[in-house]
Every structure is written in C-alpha cells, then in structure tokens.
Amino acid sequence: MAPLARTRLAQIVAQSQNVTVAGVVNGLRVQQSRRGRMAIVQLDDGTARIDVTIFNELFEANRALLKEDQLLIVEGRPQHDDFTGGIRLSADKLYDLQSARAKFARTMRLTCNGQSSGAKLRELLSPYRNGGCAVSVIYTNRSAECRIDLGEEWRVKLDDALIQSLQAWLQPENVRIEYQQAVRISAAE
To answer: What is the pLDDT of residue 181?
Structure first.
C-alpha cells in the first residue's frame, strides 16, 4: 500500500516549510478564538498522532471533511507545541481522498495483457472523459510490451466508481495512479 503523503506523522519536525500529511481523524474539538471558531483535529496515520489546528475560514469552508474516522489530507506548517512539548500542525489546506486525487493526480497507468479488450476500456473510460488525469496503457503479451499514452480527449476524472470498475476488470495491482509533487495516493485506498 502506497503512503498517502510523502511525510509520515512520526517524521514531522518543526520547520518553516509546509508538509503534506494524511491520516484518519481520531478526535475533533471546536473552540472559539479571537479570530472566530477554530477546530483542533487529532490526526492518526498509524505511526503517530498529532493535533492539527484549523483556523476559522478554513474550518468553515471544510466542515464536511472534519468527521471522526474520515481520511484527511493536510497541507500545513509544523510547529513546536509548547503545551504538549510535541509538534502541532497549522493547516493551510485540507483535502479528502477525492479532492486530493483531482488536485495531485498526473497519470493513471493501466497494465493490460493479451486478454484485454479496447472496446471494454473505451466503455469504462467514456463516462469519465474530459477530466484532468492522463491515461497510459501498458500492453504486454508473450512477445512484446508497449506503452500507449491516450490523447487529451481521453483524460479522465478520477472518480471512485471508475477506479473500482477498472480494478474489477484488470485486477487492483494493474491500476496505478502517479502523482505530482511526490504525493502518492494508492488507488486501492
């Protein structure tokens, strides 16, 4: 399983540059500050738990994403937390899996063999055409292998239903999504 972001929570250190992390919302507190309502979300990625501070405007714009047991991808600046002695992340941007895929996905790579059908591929991709993600097909048989980059008109919207139907047809390991900025999200997640 590929990591959801390039930095694991256990690896975060206080710094002036933003990091991108992902985890499951383990707890949520809402409180009033001088600048309005804010949320403090406890994020858990299996390596550590950290508190993420989400200030008023970002909180109000993304309330629907802030639920316990939900996957959350956060871009923000890690800071030393004087209260706990650990690290706290101050959020600048929040994403769910669908919006992170839409923002960071560069190419969907499909590996096919001699049993695959171009007509079936067209049928599965057609409803999701004119999206932002390029599609590359790696075709292999006993004597050859080639890569075919589909044209601009076959760029797709990476909807969960599309990914699931391609995985059911080609097997999950044959559907891979490549991401920009070193952010990788597994199609199986």
So the answer is: 57
- In the chain, the amino acid numbered 100 is A
| Structural domain includes residue 135 | yes
Same domain, 14 and 84: yes
Number of structural domains (the chain) is 2
Mean pLDDT across 98-124: 88
Count of H helices and E strands in the chain? Answer: 4, 10
Last residue of a domain, one of 68, 95, 122: 95
**Angle 182-185-187 (CA atoms, 0-180°, nearest 5)?**
140
pLDDT in tens, 40-72: 999 999 999 999 999 999 999 999 999 999 999
Is residue 22 within 8 Å of 76, Cβ to Cβ? no
Where is the domain boundary, 45, 65, 95?
Answer: 95
Whether residues 23 and 73 share a domain: the answer is: yes
Judge contact between 117 and 110, C-beta under 8 A.
no
Q: Which domain holds residue 125?
A: 100-179
Q: Is the pLDDT of residue 180 over 90?
A: no
- The Cα 99–Cα 105 span in angstroms is 10
Q: CA–CA separation, 88 vs 81, rounded Å? A: 6
Residue 147 banded pLDDT, cuts 50, 70, 90? very high
Please tell me the distance from the alpha carbon of residue 169 to that of residue 67, in angstroms, as a whole number: 33
Give yes or no for a contact between 150 and 91, defined as CB atoms under 8 angstroms apart.
no
